[in-house]
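Backbones bend. Our protein:
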Amino acid sequence: MSHTAHIRSHRKPRRSASTIAMRAGVAGGVLSTLAVAGASGSANAAEPVTQTLELPTLTADLAAQIAQSADVTQQAAASYELQAERDAAAAQAAKKAEADLAEAKKKAAEDKRKAAEAARQAAAERASRSAERATLSASVDTGSSDGSGSSVGSSSSSSSATGSAAAVVSFVQSQVGDAYVSGGTGPNSWDCSGLVQAAFKQVNIDLPRVSQAQSTAGTQVGLDNLQPGDILYWGGAGSAYHVGVYVGDGMFVGAQNSSTGVVKASLSYDPPSGAVRVL
């Protein structure tokens, strides 16, 4: 027995003809498939594939709708802005109206206070005028003493006046107690020259309207030579600022001022500067 007889042979076993034929068929099928695929791949490589995307077409109607939508949006924004401006203006107007109302109330309160103060002052002035008139009347009624100790009273103030002078004296004395009003010409309120002019109209004598002219309307006379009916003036002749009428017995009548009104008083009460005689 050979010494290698127990070692297995390394030769591959022979395949049967059927197995070989089957494998050959499978291989042939695979090769034919690869051939077909290769041919198909070559054909596809020769003709590249183009892919087309369909986009929506922007029509005229769609463009008009977009434009209309933009207009609506713009109009809405403008409307909001206008409303905001109106609201701001209304708020500002309300604030100003409130401030104006407060100012009006403040002014009304101040006007009311001033009116009350004016009424109080007017009442005080009336009371003062009444007291002063009462004092003047008492002084006239009781008379004033001259250098000889004789008493001069109102009852004899016009005793020496006659004719036109008596009419002038009577008129001015009848106005005592009337109010003084600048520019007043009667019948119940006077200024100084208005009273003198009206008195001489009683005897058909037309005097100038103002004090300056009345102070030169007649013949200048001395204060120590006065007669009832003479015109007294205060200030210079031709530049007098006040006039009155001498009524006799050292007394005169004149529309003095708004505090006293028309008074009858002694020459010493308010000494005149000079006198003129018209009658």
In short: Confidence is low (pLDDT under 50) at residues 33-37, 39-46, 137-159. The chain is about 50% helix and 15% strand. The first strand starts at residue 144 and ends at 145.
